């Protein structure tokens, strides 16, 4: 009845084959006169999702998480992961040959300082590291009397005999009816930003920035409609777009050539060398530009200006067309979510559903809209103890039956051409415990506090983050992830530079879309998260002495009333919940079948103290 088209549930490779790969890799290092090598989980542009051809870390180690690194020395090897992935890495890698180490505290450089010896030659691929990361590696090597060696070709590729080909998904134009602004106008705005930093040119090394600037979309990586590409934008004059021509139809190419010179990716290096020889100042994005770009500009006589990609902030502030599109996407998504939640309530108590069933059903309901392009990330469907794993990904092996007394945490999103969605709901299967209701209500109160926040223009996400945690802190508990991330317009579901977290230093601007997703996770027991997307809007505050902003909630899906402890809610919080449910009912009721209507009426009925 249901099926998933956009994600799989297979287990990654493990065991003897991976150990053989490590041996072959070490032989290749010896052949190249290297005593070690760094393998990041990265492509040339530091994308969150990378094409299969760039999954070097997973191929070599078996670890499939979205953030990590491996360091292979002649004597030992380690896989570095952040706290989200410690359990996963321990299960996926062969711990007889790999040690699992922290990625952040302490960082891999600390491990290198302990394990490198004088005379070691540690290799790295400068196309897969930013300059900042290369500088840290170089400092660790210098401390140990070792040498950091930039390689011309990646030794992993030399032993990965069945490496998938580079992606060649066709490029589509993202028309003004979705983008709201033509390329020429966007490029003019970017020129202004280039002038501000005093650069002669800007390299767009982030494919998201290229896609936004030139109003194109593609399918080179999973779940994000990216065409892998680069661009070089002079402070005035015609920009150059570097993209594989096999991705372009004649009509797409003709359109792009109205505003840019379109050339193959291989032309980027000679073009930068030519520009650098004139002594040009070239701006690079610190977060995504490969160290290889810094090296070739500097060695050819150019001056590198490292900083934030100005397109990131321009892209984060959505225009009226993008805002209207994302609202339409959320209304469409709401219908699929209501059908899904009604189905779970109907079917799950019998005990026959699994986590995978939930993933497949939700994707099917979204496909029924006729507008789904992809899921915006692999759906997290965790019941019972699996719900406590923050970035859990269900596989056929881990798939758990949804049982009475469980909480089902389902975090999912959709890519529609007019907008990107991301929503989490926690569903009680049968009667929840008092502890579950207490923790859920604390999470809900934090969620409401963010949703109702009023804040002066210039406020950062770090200043708001505490609002989401305050009621959990009162019980001596917390959650280990950020409260919210930026979301793109038919682009990345995790978009910078703004976020609501302890590290969120970018001021929130009107037109930005961010998630609001506090949670609570009890190891080996259950997980709770409530997530809506919020739009930053102007607030009308009488007597305000400076502009004030607020959030407008975009997501429209019932919050499980059975998990709310009414004794813990203030009257204004209860009013927020009832008004939110009234909005959901109004938006969805006329678009669903009678059975879903009946369920929706119950799920959104007003609560009273």
Automatic annotation (TrEMBL):
The keyword Protease belongs to this UniProt entry's keyword annotation: yes
One GO MF term: metal ion binding
Domain Peptidase M24: 326-536
Domain called Peptidase M24 C-terminal: residue spans: 550-607
Assigned keywords, A-Z: Aminopeptidase, Hydrolase, Metal-binding, Protease
PANTHER family: XAA-PRO AMINOPEPTIDASE 1 (PTHR43763:SF6)
Name of the protein in question: Xaa-Pro aminopeptidase
The species this protein was found in: Bradyrhizobium erythrophlei
């Amino acid at each position: 009845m249901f099926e998933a088209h956009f994600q799989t549930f297979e287990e990654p490779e493990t065991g003897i084959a991976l150990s053989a790969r490590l041996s072959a890799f070490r032989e290749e290092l010896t052949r190249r006169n290297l005593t070690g090598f760094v393998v990041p989980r990265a492509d040339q542009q530091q994308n969150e999702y990378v094409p299969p051809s760039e999954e070097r870390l997973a191929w070599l180690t078996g670890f499939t998480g979205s953030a990590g690194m491996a360091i292979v020395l002649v004597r030992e090897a380690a896989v570095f992961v952040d706290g989200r992935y410690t359990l996963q890495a321990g299960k996926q890698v062969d711990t007889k040959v790999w040690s699992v180490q922290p990625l952040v505290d302490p960082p891999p450089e600390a491990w290198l300082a302990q394990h490198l010896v004088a005379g070691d030659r540690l290799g790295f691929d400068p196309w897969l590291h930013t300059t900042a990361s290369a500088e840290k590696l170089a400092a660790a090597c210098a401390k140990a009397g070792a040498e950091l060696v930039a390689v011309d070709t990646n030794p992993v590729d030399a032993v990965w005999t069945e490496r998938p080909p580079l992606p060649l998904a066709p490029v589509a134009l993202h028309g003004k009816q979705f983008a709201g602004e033509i390329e020429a106008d966007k490029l003019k705005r970017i020129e202004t930003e280039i002038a501000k930093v005093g650069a002669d040119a800007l390299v767009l090394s982030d494919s998201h920035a290229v896609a936004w600037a030139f109003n194109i979309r593609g399918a080179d990586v999973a779940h994000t409609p990216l065409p892998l590409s680069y661009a070089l934008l002079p402070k005035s004059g015609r920009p150059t777009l570097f993209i594989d021509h096999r991705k372009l139809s004649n009509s797409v190419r003709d359109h792009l050539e109205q505003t840019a010179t379109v050339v193959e990716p291989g032309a980027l290096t000679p073009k930068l060398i030519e520009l650098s020889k004139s002594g040009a100042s070239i701006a690079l994005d610190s977060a995504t530009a490969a160290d290889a770009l810094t090296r070739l500009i500097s060695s050819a006589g150019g001056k590198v200006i490292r900083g934030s990609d100005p397109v990131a902030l321009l892209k984060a502030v959505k225009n009226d067309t993008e805002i209207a599109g994302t609202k339409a996407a959320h209304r469409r998504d709401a219908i699929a979510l209501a059908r899904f939640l009604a189905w779970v309530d109907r079917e799950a108590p019998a005990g026959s559903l699994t986590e995978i069933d939930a993933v497949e059903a939700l994707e099917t309901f979204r496909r029924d809209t006729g507008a789904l392009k992809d899921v915006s990330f692999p759906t997290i469907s965790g019941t019972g103890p699996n719900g406590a794993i923050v970035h859990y990904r269900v596989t056929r092996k881990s798939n758990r039956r949804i049982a009475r007394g469980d909480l089902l945490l389902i975090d999912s999103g959709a890519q529609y051409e007019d907008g990107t969605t991301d929503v989490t709901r926690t569903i009680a299967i049968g009667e929840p415990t008092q502890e579950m209701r207490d923790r859920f209500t604390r999470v809900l109160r934090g969620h409401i506090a963010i949703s109702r926040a009023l804040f002066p223009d210039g406020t950062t996400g770090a200043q708001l983050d505490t609002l989401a945690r305050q009621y959990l802190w009162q019980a001596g508990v917390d959650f280990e992830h950020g409260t919210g991330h930026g979301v793109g317009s038919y682009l990345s579901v995790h978009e910078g530079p703004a976020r609501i977290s302890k590290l969120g230093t970018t001021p929130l601007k009107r037109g930005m879309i961010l998630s609001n997703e506090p949670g609570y996770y009890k190891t080996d027991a259950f997980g709770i998260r409530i997530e809506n997307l919020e739009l930053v809007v102007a607030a009308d505050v009488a007597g305000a002495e400076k502009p004030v902003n607020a959030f407008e909630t975009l997501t429209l899906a019932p919050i499980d009333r059975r998990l709310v402890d009414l004794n813990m809610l203030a009257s204004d919080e209860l009013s927020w919940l009832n008004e939110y449910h009234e909005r959901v009912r109004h938006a969805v009721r006329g678009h669903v079948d009678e059975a879903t209507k009946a369920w929706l009426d119950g799920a959104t009925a007003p609560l009273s103290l």
